[in-house]
Amino acid sequence: MQSSDLKKLKIAVVGAGYGGAAAAKALSLLGAHVAVYEQAARIREVGAGIGLRPSTVNRFREWGIFDAVAKVSSPSEYFEILTATGEPIMKEAWPADGEQAHTHLIHRGDFIEALLGVLPEGMVRLGHRLESIQDLGDRSVLTFAGGEKAEADLVVGADGIKSVVRKELFSDQEPVFSGEHAYRAVISVGDAHGMVTDDNLRMYVGKGTKIYLLPLRHRDQVSFDITALCADSTWNPRNTKDDMLATVEGFDERLVAITRDLDMDVVNIRAVYDIDPIDTWHSDSVVLVGDAAHSMLHHQGQGANSAIEDAGALADALRAADTVPQALARYQAARKPVTDKLQAISRQGWSAEEIESVFPGQKPAAAAAQE
Fold first, then answer.
1. Could you give the C-alpha distances from 49 to 108, 216, 228, in angstroms and in order?
2. Predicted confidence band at 356 (pLDDT cuts at 50, 70, 90)?
3. Which residues form the FAD-binding domain (predicted)?
4. Looking at residues 193-214, what average pLDDT do you find?
């Protein structure tokens, strides 16, 4: 689209999470008028750490916000998968993107603060819970709780796994329970029983349980995550310390000790959900990004990265196409095949058999030595 047309474009972003904040930044750089509507009265990201892949980091460089992210993150050279007792299964460098080879490990809260911190003051409007959306073809009307309305030439639905935009316009499929619970906490490096000595992610797998140790050494902390099989599909389950300890039985005693020492008041416990791929992400004036379009399980660590990539691809498409509808079609064509595959592979839970299917030929060192 011509620069003059982009500058006339009125865009409403629904949701101020990773996808919404990134989309707001990328689209505002086009010169468009952007407003972000967030249902929360205060933005507070709980949970733990994530890894920002090299392609994501390159988007931050492109948008001029790399320094804001870099100062609250640590560069990591590789990731490693091990058995429950610490025998190595595989170790790989992070996939590079051009000259960018490092993944940056960051706390979720620091990440969302960094993204929102680079948006112009007043762009994000808190306390706006979307109740309905009316798609009028060349524009759409949003109605929020309390009756306030907003009209936009383009609505970006970045409202998460329970997206109102998706349900109203594109798919009424409900989120899908994975059969797992996730326990997440951030602890000091000193409480990690000597298991964190560098800036690299390690995952321990065994008996349907995965334990992730993700260093946040710029904070002198480590993100400690347990994902374990559980039939309870309650979104916010009430699990006990004994429940957690049962999931790590047989793991390295240091991992058991970390679990035993956790303060349950700071452990975030969630049932793990994703969505099935949906056929259509857009109309002529509405488009989905991030979890609203393709929520995926966290086993590949690609949820936030995919949301950032969506934001970049959407901005690229608007810049390259002649009209908004053409841009939205171009965006879906570029991103949906990628996220469909990521959704599928993220449903693999990293048992020994599943590791073999994703990383053919990789075997625990002990098993390889016996051959």
1. 6, 7, 18
2. low
3. 9-342
4. 93
Q: By C-alpha distance, which of 331, 300, 298 is closest to 23? A: 331
Which among 285, 292, 281 is positioned nearest to 10, based on CA atoms?
285
> What are the start-end ranges of the H helices in 164-302?
164-169, 241-247, 253-261, 291-294
Count of CB atoms within 10 A of residue 325's CB?
A: 16
Write down the residue that tokens 């590791």 correspond to.
355
β-bridge partners, 245:
none
For 150, the enclosing helix (H) or strand (E) is strand 149-152
The amino acid that residue 295 corresponds to is S
Q: Alpha-carbon distance 105 to 153, whole Å?
A: 36
Longest dimension (CA), the chain: 69
CA-to-CA distance for 22 and 310, rounded, in angstroms?
9
pLDDT tens-digit series, residues 16-57: 999 999 999 999 999 999 999 999 998 876 668 999 999 999
Place of tokens 């949970």: 47
Q: Tell the residue number behind the tokens 């919404």, with chain if given.
A: 20
Task: Quickly list DSSP for 280-345.
Answer: --B-SSEEE-THHHH---GGGS-HHHHHHHHHHHHHHHHHHSSSHHHHHHHHHHHHHHHHHHHHHH
Out of 107-121, 125-139, 290-304, 336-350, least confident range:
336-350
pTM exceeds 0.85, yes or no: yes
> Is the separation of the CB atoms in 23 and 314 below 8 Å?
yes
Helix, strand or coil, per DSSP, at residue 217: helix
Backbone conformation region of residue 6, classed left if phi is above 0, alpha if psi is from -120 to 50, else beta: alpha
